[in-house]
Amino acid sequence: MRSFLILFSLFFLILNELAADEQVTWAPTASGLDGELDFDWVRLTNGEWLKGDFITMRDEKLTFDSDEFGEHTLDLDDIQELYTMSPVTLVYLNKVTDISRIAIIGGAVYLLDSGEEVSRHTILSIVPAEATWWGLWEGKFSLSLAAQYGNTKQTDLQIRGDMVNRGIFNRYSLSYTGSISLVDSIETAKSHRVSGIWDRFVSDRFYISPLSYAFYLNTYQNIEQQHTPSIGLGYEIFKGKYFDMDINGGAGYQMIGYVSVPVGEEKYGHSVVVLLGTVIEIEPNSDIEFKIDYSIQFDATSVGNLIQKTLAEFSIDLTGSLDFNIGVLWDYRNQPQPREDGSIPEKHDLNITSGIGFEF
Questions:
Q1: Is the pLDDT of residue 251 over 70?
Q2: How far apart are CA 45 and CA 104, in angstroms?
Q3: Which range of residues forms the domain containing residue 14?
Q4: Which of 125, 283, 309, 343 is 20 to 30 Å apart from 254, CA to CA?
Q5: Its pTM surpasses 0.90
Q6: Whether residue 98 has pLDDT greater than 80
Q7: pLDDT at 96 over 80
Q8: How many domains does the chain have?
Q9: Do 219 and 292 lie in a common domain?
């Protein structure tokens, strides 16, 4: 009996060693550094292989659409190997570009079509070479119920959408937030905020914003329309695995029209504005994200007139495409415009929402 147990133990150890060797040495068939692939492949640091489509790599993060698990954003520190079946465009920190099929193994990037080897840390971004401008868009739409306090106290329906296109040197961002309040099937308030920004990266962290535009409407703040085109620049102060921080600033022109004004006052105003802002993103893991977007606007033609906006959003992944979101939107105007009847809107508006978001 003792001899049998010893033989069984030896047999079990041999099987474990063979399984370990197979896991270490296995690679996608007809692939690697000397063949063509039928799929893109990613090998994680735990030895697991993922088959699917490479989407993009930037800021030490890789977005990959797995055939089995859906689209995920992975930290490069968690990736041991990457093989692409089709050519990709590599953008280096000095703005030089290359096009080739690649293999990333550890900190080395192999250009399979030319046989060159470069360091991963010299690369700013990687995108599929055949990707079109339309194909680089990604975004998120969410539907929420909001409990609003300030100028109104009621339940609102809110729709929010964010889209971003990260190309080789350019980043395009679009954002929309809209809410409608209904009481006894009658619309009692509405708010719409639309913005678009074009950022052009001069280096890996510094960028200019040749064109930005924002539109705002809020009947309870007595704002019928507000248009703000501007130009600016920004800098990514921190880019880490769990924490990112961006600061930006600029100047622009603003035209604002009010729903009503006291008799004898102008309904439309024009001014030059100075804009400052920051965006902070915290991702403790791949399923949780916390984002703060803060901006402040100074009226250069009216001393003491300023506008502040803070958006804080907490997201938890439910599935590959669905998130649960909790958001807080705070608007502040220190000099709200009086209405025709003499009443003055509140300076603060606080909007708290929770709902479901869909990523694409």
A1: yes
A2: 13
A3: 2-131
A4: 343
A5: no
A6: yes
A7: yes
A8: 2
A9: yes
